[in-house]
Design brief:
The chain has about 290 residues and is α+β, with helices and mostly antiparallel strands. The protein folds into two domains: about 160 residues, Sandwich (Jelly Rolls); about 110 residues, Arc Repressor Mutant, subunit A (Orthogonal Bundle). Helix content is about 50%, strand content about 20%. It has ten helices and eight strands. Strands 2, 4, 5, 6, 7 and 8 form a six-stranded antiparallel sheet that branches. The protein has a two-stranded parallel ribbon with strand order 1-3. A hairpin with a 2-residue loop joins strand 4 and strand 5. Helix 7 crosses helix 9 and helix 7 packs across helix 10. The longest helix has 26 residues. The protein starts with 9 loop residues before the first strand and ends with a helix. The N terminus is likely disordered.
Length: about 290
């Protein structure tokens, strides 16, 4: 596999988007706006509501296969591509990050498990179907302020319905458990922003106004691994993306994900993945 780009390809939202939202009906043939079969990132969120069809995606080195009805959620930092699609029906909606409130974005990013399989006979499925269809119809009309606001409102309804289903399915229960999940989600949000520069658990604890011990105990109880390992895994995942999708040297990639000592970075990479950075690159570039 020959890769010439120095950076992972990142696609902006379609110029056909209205008010930061672009809805595409998968059952209608349209011109391809960019090559989704090649590994890439988007600068926006992507929500797929698959009423029917068979799908295979690769998202951050994980093959995900499913059949409709289902919902797929992809965040801006995830490297992804479509491997195969058969008989698709439904919609794909891309939308700007600024449209979503921080609380809602946090819940969806932290708790959504791809794919969300649906029951075609459920009220939830029917509601999402109607709303996704409405977004497409609104986008086909004249673009003006009230129509754009209506698109945002309908998209917000879709996202809140999904968030409600996630919360109902996870059944958080007691207030203590709720507090633990709040801490976990806040930690993950900070981790996504700071993993390249903050390598010490105490830095995250200070940001969240917690003791390092309390943060570590909470995260380990919910996930099975300590805060330090979460920091390492976030760094190594980005390193894997860069090793696979760019020609940057191992030293450059180590610097990019926050490690100034190439030897330490190499040892950490091997500890997390079981292979050296170069072995990983050679393994996947066949």
């Amino acid at each position: 596999m020959k890769i010439n780009s120095k950076d992972i390809v990142r696609f902006e939202i379609s110029p056909m988007a209205k008010a930061g939202v672009r809805s595409v009906n998968m059952g209608v043939k349209t011109g391809v706006e960019h090559d989704v079969s090649k590994p890439h990132r988007d600068d926006h969120f992507m929500l797929m509501f698959a009423a029917k069809g068979d799908f295979r995606f690769n998202i951050d080195f994980e093959d995900i296969g499913f059949s409709g009805p289902a919902i797929l959620w992809i965040t801006p930092e995830q490297v992804h591509r479509i491997i195969e699609v058969k008989g698709p029906e439904g919609w794909v909606v891309g939308f700007d990050q600024a449209i979503v409130s921080e609380n809602l974005k946090q819940l969806l990013e932290n708790r959504f498990n791809n794919p969300m399989q649906l029951d075609a006979e459920s009220h939830f499925y029917q509601q999402i179907f109607i709303l996704m269809d409405l977004i497409e119809k609104l986008q086909s009309g004249v673009s003006e302020s009230h129509t754009n606001q209506a698109i945002h409102s309908v998209l917000g309804a879709v996202l809140h319905l999904i968030a409600g289903k996630i919360e109902a399915d996870t059944s958080l229960g007691k207030s203590h458990e709720n507090r633990s999940f709040v801490i976990k989600e806040a930690f993950i949000q900070v981790l996504k922003k700071k993993y390249k520069v903050w390598k010490q658990p105490a830095q995250y604890a200070a940001e969240l106004a917690l003791s390092a011990a309390h943060l570590n105990d909470t995260i380990k109880a919910l996930t099975g691994i300590p805060v330090s390992v979460h920091i390492q895994q976030a760094s190594i995942l980005e390193a894997k993306r860069l090793l696979y999708f760019t020609n940057n040297s191992v030293k450059e990639i180590g610097y990019e994900v926050g490690y100034d000592e190439p030897v330490y970075f190499g040892k950490l990479f091997r500890k997390i993945t079981g292979s050296t950075p170069l072995e990983f690159r050679q393994q996947f570039r066949v």
